[in-house]
Amino acid sequence: MTQEQAADDIIICRDVHKWYGDFHVLNGVSAYVRRGEVVVIFGPSGSGKSTFIRTINRLEVHQKGTIIVDGIEMSDDLRNIDAIRRETGMVFQQFNLFPHLTVLQNIMLAPLWVRKRKRSEAEAMAYELLERVGIKEQALKYPGQLSGGQQQRVAIARALAMQPRILLFDEPTSALDPEMIKEVLEVMKELAHTGITMLVVTHEMAFAREVADRMFFFDKGQIVEQGTPEQIFNNPQHDRTKQFLSQIL
Amino acid sequence: MSTTAQELERPQQQSDVGAWLRQNLFNGVLNTLITIVLVIFIPIVLFLIVRWAIFEATWQPVATNFRLLMTGRYPIEHVWRIQACMAIIYLLFGLSAGIWQGMVRTIGIGLVGFAIFFALFPFSVSARLWLVGSVVAALVGYFVGRPFSSKLRIPVIVLWLISPFIFWLLIRGGMLGLPLVTTNLWGGLLLTIILAVVGIIASFPIGVLLALGRQSKLPIIKWCCTLYIELVRGVPLISVLFMAVLMLPLFLPSNIRIDNLVRVLVAITGFSAAYLAENVRGGLQSVPRGQYEAASALGLNVFQTTFLIVLPQALRAVIPALVGQFISLFKDTSLVSIVGLAELLGIAGIVINQPEWLQVTGGVEREVLLFAALVYWFFCYTLSKISRRIEAHLGVGTR
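Structure tokens for the assembled complex are given below, as produced in the milestone run.
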């Protein structure tokens, strides 16, 4: 895999390996992501795509290889891990909102405790973010009182509250009903234009075609093919990519 | 289509009393028999109980020893100190209820219920005045706390934190001109409540820490906590109490004397904490992995994750189990009468054996024990009522 590495690569992965027992889930993944790029990651289930983005904020520990996020190398050093987690926000398939806190408290939590912001400041920012994802009026409700689409938008606002440079989306729409998928994708599209770096694991190919700068196709723990949506959809090189695309399009 | 027609008719039938009886009480030979037998027996039993309670029972031992049952041999001229503690507790609960509303208010209402219930008992006039005063203190606290909630928040927390020392000072004395009342004079319901409240409050944080320790990734902490929990859960409370009261002095140098009550309190706390830890562990396991991941992804450290995210959810999940345990702890305090502390049941035993009741035919055991049982029941029932309210209140916020 040849690729020029520019100074503004915000994520650099070199030969990343991970095993679950005997299962080689990441088998030598090398990739770079430019600052401000939107990268869509797709591939069959079990191909390691979720595991890959979860190694980037250390929810999964890689066992071999190098991961550098915004100039910080991922190691066992807790300070490095903390520093990287400050740079990255994550949105999960199951939302993972804190059910015992209100929407507002969910969003204010990290700014208050990790960034040590003043309460008034954090609250103002939380309302601003809620307005951006379009659910300001739900601020004082609990997550359980919201629809799936609303919960996922709160989760996006919560991730943004740390003002990360990188947003990781782990199948953000897979647990949603069709009409709610749209509202979440709309928010994500808007974010894509703000210049934040986004890594999105998804099967929403229309979204990928419209928003992605590049796409990674994962299979059997490797990036089999990468390129612009144009290249991937109109002229895939690899047989496995062709086969997979023919099944989901 | 005939089935649909029948189903449509059914709601009208249910409102009919005769139909309800037929469906629920006489819907078979066996049920009809049981119904008839119960209809005959329940009134007879009730009649016998009421007749015994009013015409045959000797309530005099309860009435004449009422103060003994409530406060043991605590000197009568100092009882105001206990009552003052109670008034302070009520004032603090009133203030807290006004400030935080919600759950605290629920507990406060329960406490006011207690006071009103006890004001109905044949206490002396001054005791009843204290009870009414406590209720007034709670109300005043509530109406002061509500408008000034933001200003009073920190002072009230500080007051709560120093309140145990104030109570200890007031009840025990020996300082600031208050004469000393040694702990062997404390007894009755006062002692029962001290044992239960201190046991519950002290064992709660210890139990939570033990549960967290048992889940720890550090092997030494994990083993120590597991060992402690399994050891304590493997022995009966009574043997722990015997150890604390009778065996411990044999191992300590003779010049070191630890107060009997303190030893018993430590034993009860340590015992209860082990059981509490297992309940809390169940709650910890019910928190999904995604919650930990979301907290890590936001950059929260281990302590923040534990205390802001995991524990609140875990404890909420086990409130019924915790209250169940507090109720059994309340009743288990009756065991300390065996090691020589005269709490409610211990005093009841003393009253039963007083010589002046010897000539009463059949003894006064039933009356005195029934009274003690009623007091226990009232406290435990109120506890479980409060817990159900808290659950309903917290249920709003759960997933």
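Chain B has a mean pLDDT of 83. Chain B touches chain A at residues 288, 290-291, 293-294, 296-301, 304, 308-309, 312-313, 316, 396-399 (CB under 8 Å). Further analysis is deferred to the final report.
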